[in-house]
Amino acid sequence: MTSAISIALSGLQSSTQKLAASAANIANLQTVGSLEEGGQAPFSALTTTSSAQTVGDGEAAGVITQVVPKKTPFVPAFSPDSPFADANGVIGIPNINLAEEAVNLNLAEITFKANLKALEAASELDKELFRILDKKA
Description:
This protein is of the alpha+beta class. The protein has helices at 4-27, 98-136; strands spanning 46-55, 59-69, 74-78, 90-94. A two-stranded antiparallel ribbon has the order 1-2. A two-stranded antiparallel sheet has the order 3-4. The two termini are 25 Å apart.
């Protein structure tokens, strides 16, 4: 049987990865670059994918989260004065939406707190079980 503690810990780790991806996106909001091959590329916006882990007969075992580049990591923009501009004055800017990142940060915080509460509850249940077992011994 998989421990509730290990499931909650995987949820904490997942929330941390989601927070890190959003933080990287926000920090690199203005990291533009060249769309030409060999030039300094713009920051590639990140997102996360999560999937449930199972063991044996489909019993829940937590969650796995991976940080991956967005399908459209950057978008072209007209900025002829930029040192990264091509002959047409086009540069790449990260495909980052601050409103979406704010929501992602809030979701990461909420899921982190929920998994922390689950971890605390599992720990309290384990302590109570040990207390009951000690009384019987």
